[in-house]
Amino acid sequence: MSILNYITWNVDPEIFSIGPLSIRWYGLLFALGFIIGQRILTKIYVAEGRTEGDVDVITIYMIIGTVVGARLGHTLFYSPEYYLSNPIEILKIWEGGLASHGATIGILFALWLFSRKQEFDYMWVLDRIVIVVALGGALIRLGNLMNSEIFGHPTSLPWGFIFERSTEYSHVPRHPTQLYESLSVFALFVLLYWLWNKYKAALPKGLLFGLFVTALFTFRFLVEFLKEDQVAKEATMALNIGQILSIPLILIGLFILFKVWQNPRPALPGGKLPENTRYKKV
């Protein structure tokens, strides 16, 4: 095979280390998702009459919901037998193992708590937060690429990657499914932000959230056909765990979009916010 027919990928997942402290690409990109997302969310909140303080509070809820949900999702969805027998291992996040479906559930629950505590409209919160969640998801998948993990089946396409740091799969080019997902989710981020920037409070409630959930997990369902199994038991399954978990989320997104189409309502009557007021439950 000609060297022009594939891309050799041998990036060190560690950026640098100082003594026992190690800075890795995955951790940096994960953190950047929250840092950049906070700045974007601040712009959104201020433009619609909220305060930077509200963003600081919701960021804390988001971090906890993301990390706890993603970790519990991985342990319960992919390897429940091992982790329930060794519960202390659940705490070892630094050893890897975060699930995006678990993060979704964790975020939804954390934002429900935030909305209830701060007296915000839950769907308004979800419609705005998915914009920055999409950006964060794109950066996290880039982190997976830097770790040479979660890649696809062998391919003869010219953009196939040989992941040299994977001892088990380093001999043939493979689909860079991390890159596929990162680019698709980044495109979703651009679409969601453009829609918000154009219409803001005049957007129908639920539209951004419905679009995000439907598009994200439909693509996730499809790209899973190109991925290597994440755990051994998936080899005997017609659909893998990621696909099974995506189906109910796709249905939820489609249901919300149907309700939006059936009865579109702006964020507030008149499609704009009162000046110097916070958008509470209506």
Automatic annotation (TrEMBL):
Its main location: membrane. It is found in: Cell membrane. The keyword Cytoplasm does not apply. Its EC number is 2.5.1.145. It is a multi-pass membrane protein. A 1,2-diacyl-sn-glycero-3-phospho-(1'-sn-glycerol) binds at R141. Pfam families: LGT (PF01790). InterPro entries: Lgt. Pathway: Protein modification; lipoprotein biosynthesis (diacylglyceryl transfer). Keywords: Cell membrane, Membrane, Transferase, Transmembrane, Transmembrane helix. The chain crosses the membrane at residues 23-41, 53-73, 93-113, 125-143, 179-196, 208-226, 238-258. The keyword Lipid metabolism does not apply. GO terms for molecular function: phosphatidylglycerol-prolipoprotein diacylglyceryl transferase activity. HAMAP family: Lgt (MF_01147). Belongs to the Lgt family. Catalyzes the transfer of the diacylglyceryl group from phosphatidylglycerol to the sulfhydryl group of the N-terminal cysteine of a prolipoprotein, the first step in the formation of mature lipoproteins. This is Phosphatidylglycerol--prolipoprotein diacylglyceryl transferase. The lineage of its organism: Bacteria, Pseudomonadati, Bacteroidota, Cytophagia, Cytophagales.
